[in-house]
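Re: the request from the purification team.
They wanted to know what the chain is likely to look like in 3D before they choose a buffer screen. I agreed to run a prediction and write the result into the notebook, where they can find it.
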Amino acid sequence: MLVRVSAAGINPVDGAVRGGNYPLLGEPPFILGWDISGTIEALGPDVTGLKVGDQVFGMPHFPKQAAAYAELAVAPADEIAPKPESIDHIHAAALPLAGLTAWQGLVRHGGLRKGQRVLVHAAAGGVGHLAVQIAKAHGAHVIATASPDKLDFVRSIGADEVVDYTAGDFTEKVGDVDLVLDAIGGDHADQSLKVVRDGGMLVSLLNVHDATRATAGARGIRVERMSVVPDRDGLIELGKLVDARKLAVHVAESFPLARAGDAHAFLAARPIGKVVLAV
């Protein structure tokens, strides 16, 4: 389908690709971005269930080029879903990559169940603040780490326990965790194992040391390194949570497309939630 883009979400991976630290798209020039929300402009001949004029959102092509920072974007129909009715394009564009990362990490990879104790690191970030709400919507007891200036926000979105990670070792304040979603990786993943119960699970969005895996295996803890993938069914589930008022995406700021550079600089300062381009 051809989508007339109303808004494009910005994610940390965009900055990494721009800076050459995560060469997904090869050598420049290329158009950045994956998150889109907009209106169907045209459809291929075999697309069913959607029509020109429908409002849609998604994260097409990831990790290949989607060219979301543009007025028009081409997307496979099976990687796009109807936009949640209760939110505008700015908020819908903030949801796909971060929301699918949280959804796939907790539900698909983590097997999230009601009553579990779930630890979400960086809980005020793009992925983290959505993960807290998804876990709560599934009936979990959520423990969240954040910096001191973001603790009140994390409480406001439903965290049962909040931990200031700047005020000492979080492993001394948390324990008996069933599932950890870790967006930091490396040594931090190793520390997180200390609070996971035997037989629990650690899902990491970044690389995990071999030694960490060995330590986990000895205690029956499953460690999984995940990367988000396009997922129409996941988008639909996220949309249901949004329209049921169980999931709210926080947009820290939106910028016009012409100020994409300023938007990247703003995101680098680690605001609460997401940053979006209005096209």
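For the purification team: The chain has nine helices and 13 strands.
Please add any questions underneath this entry.
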